[in-house]
Design goal:
Elongation Factor Tu (Ef-tu), domain 3; six-stranded antiparallel barrel; 28% helix; 345 residues; globular; Aminopeptidase; 9 helices; 2 domains; 29% strand
Length: 345
């Protein structure tokens, strides 16, 4: 099976460099919508502005759904300090030290965007000595230094910056000649690109899915209620496509597709797990099976919301999840191929 890796990688890079923290995902949703429409695939928006693209199948009596989320980690202005610095509140779950030193952009409602840097409030070693390394990083001592001439709170307010403005983290996206993608927010934009790659393969090769298939691009997954609503009523199987997490004690790698057996929400459907593993094995795909203790997915959200579906989870290995992440194109290829095999069998 040959897939269009250039289409997938180009889509991924564009998406990675399109800011979309949870709650501010319009631009990214618009981009994915246009990609599906460019393939001639019908799309619609949900009330929460998630995106559903649908390819009719040989059998329309029941439907399958594959989901990936376009929303990412980020921050929001919590307080304008007297000295002109900004306190922020987190969007999504991450360690404060993982964003220290990162460039960022503050997006205002009316006055455009302003750049800045995320720093410890006592960042200078020459001023604070050993305290710089000893301090625990928290929401109380991490702040944004704005790249404007501001000396006090009023100066910042005069720029149009206010509490509630979104803060975008610089993704520093880089694709290496050795096939690695280094970037923030590979969770889960890499998998949105995987869904686009699956759809492109079906359309280009005039392949009809076994069952009518929906591609659900959710936009609130990082805060726990991504694909929890608006699932098409005939859906009987739900396959979440989300990052796998390599690390100590894990089987996941950056070079294979992972099939998840269990996460913090409990076991995934056993029959689906076995079927996915058999498809991968029979077609000689690099795959592993893994368990994640600190993890939830769109499929988890759907089950918690009461949807009666069989649920599974696959995805490419993403190193250093919720930090400065990395994956290899081999895991993308394996994930797309397994998804296509699932859709067509």
């Amino acid at each position: 099976m040959e897939i269009n890796k250039k289409y997938i990688m180009d889509s991924m890079v564009t998406l990675l460099t399109t800011p979309s923290p949870t709650g501010d995902t319009e631009a990214a949703i618009d981009f994915v919508d246009e990609k599906f429409k460019g393939l001639g695939i019908e799309t619609r928006r949900t009330v929460k502005n998630a995106l559903i693209a649908t390819i009719p199948g040989e059998d329309d009596s029941k439907h399958r759904l594959l989901s990936a989320h376009v929303d990412t980690l980020g921050a929001m202005v919590k307080e304008i300090k007297a000295n002109g610095r900004l306190k922020v509140t987190q969007i999504g779950g991450y360690a404060w030290n993982s964003i220290e030193g990162e460039y960022c952009t503050i997006s205002t409602d009316e006055n455009g965007e302003f750049t800045g840097t995320i720093l410890l409030s006592q960042a200078s070693t020459h001023v604070h000595g050993g305290k710089v390394g000893d301090q625990k990083r928290t929401g109380d001592n991490i702040e944004i230094r704005i790249d404007e001439k501001v000396k006090n709170k009023k100066d910042v307010e005069d720029l149009g910056i206010q509490v509630g403005d979104f803060v975008y983290l610089d993704t520093r996206t880089d694709v290496t000649e050795s096939g690695f993608v280094k970037s923030r927010h590979l969770d889960d934009k890499a998998c949105v690109a995987c869904l686009l790659g699956m759809a492109e393969h079906l359309v280009t090769n005039k392949i009809k899915p076994k069952y009518t298939t929906h591609f659900y691009i959710s936009n609130y997954e990082e805060v726990g209620h991504g694909s929890s609503a608006a699932i098409p009523e005939k859906t009987f199987e739900f396959l979440a496509v989300d990052m796998a997490a390599p690390g100590d004690g894990q089987t996941s790698t950056e070079y294979a597709v992972t099939i998840c057996a269990k996460d913090s929400s409990g076991p995934y459907d056993l029959e689906m797990k076995r079927r996915l593993a058999k498809l991968a094995k029979d077609n000689e795909l690099d795959y592993v099976i893994d368990i994640y203790p600190f993890y939830g997915s769109d499929a988890s959200a759907a089950l918690r919301a009461g949807w009666e579906v069989k649920h599974g989870l696959i995805g490419p290995g993403v190193d250093a999840s919720h930090s400065y992440e990395r994956l290899h194109e081999d895991s993308i290829e394996a994930t797309v191929k397994l998804g296509i095999l699932y859709i067509t069998n």
